[in-house]
Design goal:
The chain is an alpha/beta fold and 499 residues long. It has helices at 40-47, 70-75, 93-97, 112-125, 141-153, 171-186, 198-204, 227-235, 296-303, 327-332, 342-346, 353-358, 373-386, 403-415, 433-448, 460-466, 489-496, and strands at 2-11, 14-24, 29-33, 55-60, 63-65, 78-81, 159-163, 190-194, 207-212, 215-221, 253-263, 271-281, 285-289, 311-317, 320-322, 335-338, 366-367, 370-371, 421-425, 452-456, 469-474, 477-483.
């Protein structure tokens, strides 16, 4: 249906794509894989009309095409779902879905009834139970991602480009999306699917194209290449070179949570969390696993003091009971938190690496009561080296870093506070295979250094690989615990499911 031939794209000082070929077939899922920086997004931006200046050619149904802009691409049926959300938080779901192309009445006013009805149909297909008049800002990231998908489907689509569409979705939402993809395939829609998840490649894709360093290094039917070979092509080395967990010598109990509960906002009297108790030791990685709505993120928020009027329970650090009424109290007590959404909650994107790293530990870079640029620079350079942050310098803008390196900056920011306990919420969301393994290694090294680590992840293989112990949550309650020797996907998933 659509084909890219010998596509080359240069930016100042960077060859982003070098003679890349891509064939996309009607009624098939065509996966594109590669590390961050391999050229995937650049290629997708060319296919969807974002970039119009490049060498090489595009063909649609065998005919050469050249898009002037994204509208030009949409007019021939090419739609893209970006990994980074392209939504306006203060507008409603319906307004976002039809932004810039609102249906009109005969009187040339916006036909809100039609807009809302069509939005409800789209959300129903995606099984999202949400008020189409509700603001985007009221939705969780996973729900916002579903609205982004609904927006793309609101066009008459022939080629649908999906950039990491499940990165923020729960398992049930992912299952719904996969059903929709199968339906689109039956309708003859060609799907370009960018993913870092190898299980999605085998489960969903018909064909795979591997990009590395701006070049297409492999193209074939998925059934003709083992997953290990795909990973090797992506990163240029064998899969056995990846993360290997170090042994951790577990220390004393560092954090103990008893009967943690949190009510829903409003007057319903219902609970988001109910009587959750657990502990984590120094030099231990505790994994918390649960399905969407299990209360994983809410548990972190409760412990960090984000909702003190709705929260009850006991927090003990080093056997001392502490009343955490705000995140500031939590930080002073030695707790650090890596949020799920690094770009909105973890970083100031237009600021330099050095400035971002010092944000949570300003007292460490003061000299005679004033901020010392020299101390800030030294601190940043130390973490740049320790965490291997790939950048031109510590004065480089965080916005220009890859997802994996941005995450390293967030980790550096909190390590600068000298934490006793580190919470990580979905720490590898939206980063590539190689960067994931670098993050795993950082977490592992921090545990060896004596930090107590609590990690939430939606990826069960990930949480099993890195954790010493796993507890499961289900519908806001503690539902199981597993020592490392007991880890199996079946046991852990069963404990996380409603009985």
């Amino acid at each position: 249906m659509i084909e890219a031939r010998k596509i080359t794209k240069q930016f100042p000082g960077v060859l982003a794509l070098n003679n890349v070929d891509l064939r996309v077939y009607a009624g098939k899922v065509n996966a594109v894989v590669g590390e961050n920086g391999a050229g995937k997004s650049t290629l997708m931006n060319i296919l969807s009309g974002v970039y119009t200046e490049y060498d090489g050619e595009l063909l649609l149904d065998g005919q050469k095409i050249k898009f002037k802009d994204t509208t030009d691409a949409r007019n021939v049926g090419i739609s893209i779902i970006h990994q980074e959300l392209q939504l306006v938080p203060q507008l409603s779901i319906a307004e976002n879905i039809f932004l810039g192309r609102e249906p009109l009445t005969k009187m040339r006013t916006i036909d809100r009834q039609k807009m809302e009805e069509e939005s409800r149909v789209l959300l129903s297909k995606l099984e999202l139970d949400a008020d189409v008049n509700g603001k985007i800002s009221s939705l969780r990231i996973g729900q916002q991602q579903i609205v982004e998908i609904a927006k793309a489907l609101s066009f008459d689509v022939r080629v649908l480009i999906m950039d990491e569409p499940t990165s923020a979705l729960s398992e049930s939402e992912t299952t719904t999306l996969f059903k929709l993809i199968e339906s689109l395939k039956r309708d003859g829609v060609a799907i370009v699917y960018i993913t870092h998840k190898m299980n999605e490649l085998t489960q969903l894709a018909d064909f795979v194209t591997v990009l590395r360093d701006g070049c297409s290094v492999h193209e074939s039917a998925v059934k003709n290449i083992p997953v290990d070979d795909v990973v090797k092509l992506m990163v240029g080395r064998d899969i056995q070179d990846f993360f290997v967990k170090q042994p951790h010598v577990k220390g004393d109990v560092r954090l103990k949570i008893e009967n943690m509960s949190m009510k829903k906002s409003g007057k319903s009297g219902k609970y988001l969390l109910k009587n959750i108790s657990f502990d984590v030791h120094a030099s231990e990685v505790l994994g918390i696993y649960g399905l969407m709505g299990a209360g994983r993120t809410e548990l972190f928020e409760a412990i960090l003091g984000l909702h003190p009027t709705r929260t009850s329970g006991t927090v003990c650090i080093d056997q001392k009971s502490i009343k955490i009424s705000s995140p500031d109290v939590a930080i002073k007590a030695g707790i650090a938190f890596i949020p799920e959404d690094r770009k909105h909650d973890g970083l100031v994107l237009n600021m330099a690496i050095a400035h971002n790293i010092s944000l949570a530990s300003m007292d460490k870079i003061l000299k005679n009561g004033l901020l010392s640029a020299n101390l800030e620079q030294k601190q940043a350079e130390m973490y740049r080296e320790k965490l291997k942050i790939k950048s031109t310098s510590s004065s480089q803008s965080v916005a220009k870093l890859s997802g994996g390196n941005q995450q390293k900056v967030v980790v550096s920011k909190w390590l600068a506070t000298d934490p006793k306990i580190l919470f990580l919420d979905e720490p590898t969301r939206g980063i590539d295979v190689n960067a994931k393994n670098e993050i795993y290694k950082i977490i592992d090294d921090l545990a060896v250094e004596g930090i107590a680590i609590v990690i939430v992840s939606s990826e069960l293989p990930e949480i099993m690989a890195i954790s010493d112990r796993i507890i499961t949550l289900c519908e806001g309650r503690y539902s199981g615990e597993f020592a490392r020797a007991e880890f199996t996907e079946e046991k852990i998933l069963h404990a996380a499911l409603p009985q």
